[in-house]
Write a structure and sequence with these properties.
The protein is mostly helical. It contains six helices and no strands.
């Protein structure tokens, strides 16, 4: 167990964003979509979402596993366009490293393997 001790000064200098980070929320949603636990709470949502998402979203399903995904795809940004600009500005070598270090096969929620991972 790791214990982290905060002082009053630590808490005084902590702030919470007033806005959600849309790409972080998207990544977390895709991670939850790929998982198989908590079916009582998320099962119906997962089944409905898998049926309704367009095929064009499939590369994202493949890129994010149930427990992690490459860090370059979810910058903390206030708007989607701002976040996508940051993703597009990711140097190619950073993006390749982020994708290659993911474990394969990735659980993408339908028993399939990732098309992104290099084996």
């Amino acid at each position: 167990m790791i214990r982290v001790h905060f002082t009053g000064a630590d808490f005084a200098s902590t702030s919470v964003s007033r806005h959600p980070a849309p790409l972080v929320e998207l990544k977390l949603s895709l991670m939850m979509l790929s998982r198989r636990d908590n079916d009582v709470y998320f099962g119906r949502w997962r089944r409905r979402l898998r049926r309704s998402l367009p095929a064009t979203t499939r590369p994202l399903w493949d890129l994010v596993s149930g427990y992690r995904g490459p860090p370059f795809i979810d910058p903390v940004s206030v708007t989607v366009p701002e976040g996508l600009d940051e993703v597009h500005a990711t140097p190619l070598d950073v993006g390749e490293h982020g994708v290659e270090r993911e474990q394969v096969p990735m659980d993408v929620g339908d028993g399939g393997n990732s098309h992104w991972a290099i084996v």
